[in-house]
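During the no-cost extension, the postdoctoral fellow (Dr. R.K.) reprocessed legacy sequence entries with the updated structure-token encoder. One reprocessed record is reproduced below for audit purposes.
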Amino acid sequence: MTTTSTATLEPVDGEFTVAAPGEWQNLPDAIEDDLMVINMGPQHPSTHGVLRMLLTMDGEVIVDNQPVIGYLHTGIEKNAEYRPWVQGVTFVTRMDYLAPLHNELAYCLAVEKLLGISDQIPERAQAIRVILTEINRITSHQVALATGGMEMGALSAMIYGFREREDLLDILEFVTGLRMNHAFIRPGGLAQDVPETFIERVSEVIDALPGKIDELEDLLTQNPIWLERNSGVGVLTREQCLDLGVTGPVLRSTGLAHDLRKSQPYCGIEQYDFEVPTVDTCDGYGRFLIRIAEMRESIKIVQQALKVLPGGPVMVADKKIAWPAQLALGPDGLGNAKEYIGKIMGQSMEALIHHFKLVTEGFEVPKGQVYQAVESPRGELGYAMTSSGTNKPYRVRVREPSFIHIGTIPSVTRGLQIADVIAAVASLDPVMGGVDR
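Re-encoded structure tokens follow.
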């Protein structure tokens, strides 16, 4: 935390002078000058990335807090307009780096809606999508609790949270080949099927998880310091949430059980039994309780999906859309099936041409506009897409919950002291990769 470089000295010859290093002692006394501007971030360990906040202080009390974003701008939305539809997955998975699979899923569901193939996605692919995104929800909540704990001085909670997350990231690496930025969910299905020991390996980790969540909860739920730092801090009422477009655990901490998995289900998730946890405290402590409860509900969903995991293909049958085509696991982990390579290289020139065009140009999507949203760990994650009938999107616009929640910072921090800003922002769980997309 440093004083802002935009503060000014008394006017000299009618012009204000910007304070330079070494001149801060000449600034007006903050006690005599009613208000003082404090610059927090962007490189600050508690700002969840590179978030800058301009705090206007009246003594120790915050009277205004303006978030400044753009320090992590990636141009992902614009870049997506210059790549074929399938390659867009590799962009959006890097947006919210704690929920890459939710971004992949929302993007692919929107593309499939434009293609008119939403009802043709194989059941096995749908179930695996549900399993992976719920595992991803647990890992995201564990990071939220671990980093939130670290910022409050609860280092054991940080260690516990990251320890359990490692086991789940190992699962994602086992299935997709990567711990994050997977590009595993593709328009029409999945990049490949899961390994043969998928059910056993996921079950082993998931079945042990409730006990580990108990340990994390025991550390914090009744911890007097944790209670003192989070109760009544970062308050947003239900009316404020609805006015500002807030969703996810922040909205559910006001007692409103809004969850897109229930209200607008996708991937067949409505067939699984799970609850939407709520509390009515409207504060940071309530959001902590919500995330703990949601991890338990995600475990229930994964266990149910594993029990009824159907067989069959994991990619839509239409060969003009299905890519990558006919992959097979080989000694080196991954590769095209030998029979498929033999056909396109030695038997069918038409098949070779089709493969070449599909890989280099991709498929064309009919003209139209769609909006598709999923329930990400932070709330409603929506993709508004426009197709002009070519092999690339005309426009990809993302409703990112972290961006929406950053806009609530003035409301949740007004009247607090600086130390409480850290707790309030942590309870919103923003990811700047999603904000600066």
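The two ends are 26 Å apart (CA to CA). The chain has 17 helices and eleven strands. The remaining legacy entries will be reprocessed before the final report is submitted.
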